[in-house]
Amino acid sequence: MLNRVVLIGRLTKDPELRYTPSGVAVASFTLAVDRNYKNAQGERETDFIPCVVYRQLAELCANYLAKGRLAAIDGRIQVRSFNGQDGQRRWVTEVIAENVRFLSPKEGNNNYTGTSDSMGAGTFGHEVSLDDDIPF
């Protein structure tokens, strides 16, 4: 079985960073990804895809990604459900990002080559990956 997705798009807003009760960092953001074709009106349509990142990679994304920045995501699709406040079952489809490439330079620094000392990764244009298992 294979569950793999690769996306390149722009963030619709800054990543939201939070922590689980056990202290695991979780960042979530939405990636706007253009379709490869135009609709009947000659316009290119865009998909808005929710993405979730865990641990140190989540903290790096919160620090280096922002609204409008270009990013490449490599991960897997996850579908989960929960019961809403009205008792109705809700379904959520999201991408669990395991690798992220920062494709835009950090704002205000045209020569961005920042790295994360804790991971030895995060350099502009280089891949940052998640080494640990996702906590479910």
Question: So what's the overall shape?
Answer: globular
> Mind summarizing the main beta sheet?
5 strands, mixed, barrel
Total strand count, please? Answer: 7
What's the quaternary structure here? single chain
Termini separation:
20 Å
CA gyration radius, whole angstroms: 16 Å
Strand content: over 45%
How many structural domains does the protein architecture include? 1
**Name of the level-1 CATH class:** Mainly Beta
CATH architecture: Beta Barrel
Order of helices and strands: EEEEHEEE
**Name of the CATH homologous superfamily:** Nucleic acid-binding proteins
Strand order of the largest sheet: 1-3-4-6-5
Please sum up the structure shown.
Helices cover 7% and strands 49% of the residues. By secondary structure, it is mainly β.
Q: Can you walk me through this structure?
A:
This protein has one helix at 55-64, and strands at 5-11, 16-19, 25-38, 44-54, 70-83, 89-102, 127-129. The protein is mainly beta. It has a single domain, classed as OB fold (Dihydrolipoamide Acetyltransferase, E2P), CATH 2.40.50. The protein has a five-stranded mixed β-barrel with strand order 1-3-4-6-5. A hairpin with a 5-residue loop joins strand 3 and strand 4.
Topology diagram in text:
Layout (H helix, E strand, L loop, with lengths): L4 E7 L4 E4 L5 E14 L5 E11 H10 L5 E14 L5 E14 L24 E3 L7
Parallel strand pairs: 4-6
Antiparallel strand pairs: 1-3, 1-5, 2-3, 3-4, 5-6, 6-7
